[in-house]
Design brief:
Gly_rich_dom, about 0% helix, Glycine-rich domain-containing protein, 20 strands, 5-stranded antiparallel sheet, mainly beta
Length: about 240
């Protein structure tokens, strides 16, 4: 009769005499991605083999403000800020039967001379929370004389929870040289995305890329323009077993 050598680090003989893989030794087996903004539920029973999870949460980016300068004048807006990020590794035994999952929505674009909206926080239960970025401001008024506006600070890591937390990127400031020359600010970057582009031509705010990044600022030389929505957040759960 042939004999077989079995690595005891990965296999064991069960009570019924069958050779089985030791629970938790297969490594990464699946992942769950929550993309849609809003509330979701993670159910541990859907993964009976689960032994460990790696959770990543990305807060949403801030929207940028709208601008509406008078004829022959200029308004330049800064971008929206990037959302914060957090992650944590946990044993499956420390999870509840269900865990609430929230994906933050990107901050809304401002219209006319309205400010951009703040991005929403993303979270997995209470163990991983990442705040959203603030929206773009509307401090600059219509005019032709040189003016500058500061960018918006990125979402703070201190407002989140997790094994590791990182703040979002600040947005770029905006400036005006005269009634026909100015520059809107770039959106703030995030761990999972890049902020919307800065612009010198008249138009709506720049579209952010990826997840959690802020919108680029808008620029008006006498026409009403809108800001841009910030990028939505994201939650990823990596499943090990």
């Amino acid at each position: 009769m042939a004999t077989v050598c079995v690595d005891g680090d990965f296999f064991e003989v069960g009570p019924d005499g069958r050779l089985t893989i030791i629970r938790g030794e297969l490594g990464l087996r699946n992942r769950v991605i929550y993309r849609d903004p809003g509330n979701h539920v993670f159910r541990k029973a859907d993964y009976p083999w689960l032994t460990k999870v790696f959770i990543e949460v990305q807060g949403a980016g801030g929207g940028s403000a709208g601008a509406n300068a008078r004829d022959g004048e200029c308004i330049a807006r800064p971008g929206g800020a990037g959302g914060a990020y957090a992650n944590i590794i946990l044993a499956a035994s420390s999870l509840g039967a269900t865990e609430a999952v929230v994906v933050g929505a990107g901050g809304a674009a401002g219209t006319s001379n309205g400010a951009g909206g703040a991005g929403g926080a993303s979270s997995f239960g209470g163990v991983a929370v990442a705040q959203g970025g603030d929206g773009g401001t509307v401090f600059m008024t219509s005019g032709t004389s040189p003016d500058v506006t500061s960018g918006v600070p990125g979402a703070s890591a201190l407002g989140g929870t997790g094994g590791l937390t990182a703040g979002g990127g600040a947005s770029g400031g905006a400036f005006r040289l005269n009634g026909t020359n100015g520059m809107a600010g770039a959106g703030g970057d995030s761990r999972m995305g890049q902020g919307g582009f800065p612009r010198a031509s008249e138009g709506d705010g720049g579209v952010p890329r990826g997840r959690g990044s802020g919108a680029g600022g808008s620029l008006s030389y006498g026409e009403p323009v809108n800001g841009q929505d910030g990028a939505d957040g994201l939650v990823i759960v990596w499943l090990y077993g």
